[in-house]
Amino acid sequence: MSKPTYKDVANLKEDARIEEIAANVKLGKTVGFVTDADPGKADRYIQKLKVKIPGIVILARGSGPVPKTVMVKVGPPAVGKN
Q1: CATH code, domain carrying 29
Q2: pTM for the whole thing?
């Protein structure tokens, strides 16, 4: 099992952050990310990820580590599922 890593992508534009998430999920990694709790923001990230990676699995979603944030954990599509 590989060691968890952290990458601060706050200075990137939204689509570049989503590309970073997608690139790691495509490598078979589980990725957690945090967004502002702005209405619809986490949903927008998820929708964009679903377009890039059909079948992406949303493993968890809840309150982020600091107030007014949302944490989402995603993983690669399940293999062998119909």
Answers
A1: 3.30.1370
A2: 0.89
Residue 5 falls within a domain, yes or no? Answer: no
Does the residue 2 lie in any domain?
A: no
- Count of domains in the chain? 1
Amino acid 70 reads V
Residue 43 tokens, joined: 């949903």
Q: For residue 41, what are its two tokens?
A: 């923001």
Domain span holding position 36 = 14-75
Tens-level pLDDT at each residue, the chain (82 residues)? 677 888 899 899 999 999 999 999 999 999 999 999 999 999 999 999 999 999 999 999 999 999 999 999 999 998 865 4
Dump the DSSP string for 15-44. HHHHHHHHHHHHTT--EEEEEE--TTHHHH
